[in-house]
Amino acid sequence: MGLVIAGTGRHLPETVVTNDDLGRVMDTNDEWIRQRTGIHERHFAADGEGASDLGAAAARRALASARLAPEDLDYVIMATMTPDHHFPGPAAMVAAKLGLHSTPCLDVRQQCASFVYQLQLAHALMMAGQARTILVVGAEAHAGFMPWNDWDYLTGKGGSAPDEAAFARATEHRGLAILFGDGAGAVVLRRTDDDRRGVVGVDVHSDGRHFEEIHIPSGFTRRPYQTAEMVQNDLHIPRMKGRELFKLAVTRLPASVRALCHKTQTRLEDIDLFVAHQANDRINGAVRNALELPAEKVPSNIAKLGNTSSATIPILLDELAEQGRLGPDQLICFLALGAGLHWGSALLRT
């Protein structure tokens, strides 16, 4: 018994923000951002557009690709680090927007590493006989914590230039703001009787000692949910230690892939594609070099989309399907590291 990718889909918000646009509200420029991240532009969700809206749109496209109806789904597994609300999680909201009112839903919080965990969970549910058809969704609406207020001025549609204080505030959070974009990806997985297809192996890890490398300081149960002081001090905006995350990613991801290959008796050269989380082009380049992989085996879309966190891998997977790069009997390695700290890799035989 195995599983197959029955369909994929993605959805991107309409608003596109270039590196030059960001230079209107903070001290940065296109060359500075490209050199450090490989990002040229990104999409941002509109005011009032949440992760559940983006996720539902991507899910509809994945279902259409699979030629299935929402009623065919046995389970929904949703990942986001930017939920519509602190609680409840958005998985059931996505299902409701698809017209499903009793289908079981699960929210996972492994952030950028979510897809590897989602794949493992879907595989386990199918092997346990609990589900035959599972929808996996990753969606993010990072626009809500961006450090500027005038979106019209940012995108050249009018508005007023930021004053000195607003410009300085945005610049203070520049290292984070230049990285993220919004979007959603969805994958429909189906159980099959062909045990040669599906999950070959998974290698996942978590280490909470590194939670401060990227986290939101404002408290929930550790202190009042929200105070004026928290907002004034921008404690609702994530804090990120970029150098530390870089070091963790470029050491732990290659180690995970090697461990997975050893566990599954797979040679690196026999893997057809390495579909990695799109956090930073420099990180992926360093991981690729550490594993001595040819560039054509490690596709990237970060230049146009930025880091869409839990959505990066399913969005990239849908692009690969659209380009005709996914075929039968391929071996695909998924790899990702995210806030928590969570990281790992998974092998899938198509």
Summarize the structure.
With 350 residues, the chain is an alpha/beta fold. It has 13 helices and 13 strands.
> Which fold name corresponds to the CATH topology of the largest domain?
Peroxisomal Thiolase, Chain A, domain 1
> Which stretches of 5+ consecutive residues score pLDDT under 50?
none
The CATH first-level class of the largest domain comes to: Alpha Beta
Number of domains: 2
CATH superfamily label of the largest domain: Thiolase/Chalcone synthase
- The percent range for strand residues is 15-25%
Shape: globular
Give the N-to-C terminal Cα separation.
13 Å
The helix-strand sequence is: EEHHEHEHEHEHHHEEEHEHEHHHEE
Describe this structure in words.
This protein is of the alpha/beta class. It folds into two domains: 2-192, Peroxisomal Thiolase, Chain A, domain 1; 198-349, Thiolase/Chalcone synthase (Peroxisomal Thiolase, Chain A, domain 1, 3-Layer(aba) Sandwich). The chain is 34% helix and 22% strand. It contains 13 helices and 13 strands. The protein has helices spanning 19-22, 30-37, 51-66, 91-97, 114-127, 151-154, 164-172, 174-177, 228-232, 242-264, 281-291, 302-305, 312-322, and strands at residues 2-11, 15-18, 41-44, 75-79, 105-108, 133-140, 183-192, 198-206, 214-215, 239-240, 273-276, 331-338, 342-349. The protein has a five-stranded mixed beta sheet with strand order 1-7-6-4-5, sandwiched between helices. The longest helix has 23 residues, at 242-264. It is globular and about 65 Å long. It starts with a strand and ends with a strand.
